[in-house]
Amino acid sequence: MKAILAAVLALGTATSASAAVSIVNGSFEMGAAIPAGGFISVPALNTTAITGWTVGGAGVDYIGTYWQAADGVRSIDLSRTNAGSVSQSLTTVIGQTYKVYFSLSGNPDGGPGQKVAVTSVSGSLPDIETYDVGAANNRANMLWENYSYRFTAFDTTSVLTFASATRTPFGAALDNVSIAAVPEPETWAMLIVGMGLVGVSARSRRLRATAA
């Protein structure tokens, strides 16, 4: 039973390792200097202001302590003067499924209203996420919410993009981005079978001990 469990766990570990992928600077903590209590505007095609990310569209606002972050002290407003975006290239395994996790809020300076963000990966269908900024949202309490996006890689390089669909200077706010490979169904099945066999073995030992 120990040998079976070890083999199953080794398969799961090997599968996860082969599909390992990570986000660079997912909480946007690394980048250009931001004035205390403020933010900086980053134009399109900039690849250096926010480490690991390329800015597109109409640009983004790189937020410091201007408002509360979901993780750390920095975050992104996906609209600068208009709808902008941030993108990052990921090394992926063809056919592997991944799940991206992230937090969204909305710039409260524009008052209550719906903010729209689009999450996409090259070759996969995009997801449209909405966040409703209410009267309770403010810079000190952004009321971040957690979202996720699932995709299957069609190439060894996949470009992850978060884009604003709110065409005002007050867009969706983004922070706390991470990614993980989703185990294949057969790996889950083998893990369940392996755990089941170990459970049966343990029960049999208990029964024999009771009988003795």
What's the total helix number?
2
Rounded mean pLDDT score: 86
Report the count of strand segments.
Answer: 11
The percent of residues in helical segments reads: 10-25%
Low-confidence stretches are 3-16, 186-195
The 3D shape can be described as: globular
Biggest sheet, spatial arrangement of strands = 1-3-4-11-6-9
Q: Structural class of the helix and strand makeup? A: alpha+beta
Q: What about the largest sheet?
A: 6 strands, antiparallel
Radius of gyration: 22 Å
How much of the polypeptide forms β-strand, as a percent range?
A: 35-45%
Q: What distance separates the N and C termini?
A: 22 Å
Secondary-structure element string? HEEEEEEEEEEEH
Topology readout:
Blueprint lengths: L1 H17 L20 E4 L11 E4 L2 E4 L11 E3 L6 E8 L5 E10 L6 E9 L5 E7 L11 E8 L4 E8 L7 E10 L3 H27 L1
Helix pairs in contact: 1-2
At a glance:
21% of the residues lie in helices and 35% in strands.
Describe this structure in words.
The protein has 212 residues and is an alpha+beta fold. The protein has helices at 2-18, 185-211; strands at residues 39-42, 54-57, 60-63, 75-77, 84-91, 97-106, 113-121, 127-133, 145-152, 157-164, 172-181. It has a 6-stranded antiparallel beta sheet with strand order 1-3-4-11-6-9, with no helix packed on it. A 5-stranded antiparallel beta sheet has the order 2-5-10-7-8, with no helix packed on it. The radius of gyration is 22 Å and the shape is globular.
